[in-house]
Amino acid sequence: MPLIKASNLLLDTNVWLDYFLAAGPHLASIERLVELRFDGKISLMYAPTTAKDLFCLIPRRLRRLDADGAGKPPSTYAPAAWACVERLMEIAFASPLSFAECELARMMRSSFDDFEDNLVIASGGNRTCRLRGDRRQSDARGIPGVLHHPRTRD
To answer: What band does 36 get if pLDDT is binned at 50, 70 and 90?
Structure first.
């Protein structure tokens, strides 16, 4: 299915986590999105909360995957977390997150009962989005946690 020209795609934390850990059933599709970004065909976005979450989640996941991780302090994995956040900021741009987006996320409670997902959606500015920003649902591209944002990047 062709992508819409000049699309901005807002990727949820779980999508980025799969990308950086090279895991998950949709890894090939996520990697393709990153390729399309470097080809200039799409722009990738993340909510600022995603950068914070990745910084916390990457060390935990790496420690769990590391056979020797039980004896290592979490700070052992901090360089990997920093590298992921830096890479994220190189290949995608942060969507805005202010009081207005937080208020919108609160008001979306009747549609989506997950405040974190609502923050991601509100941050992307896609107020008519009917998708959760996580693995539970996907957009037309079939990749859970990818939300199409119709505005073009300025």
So the answer is: very high
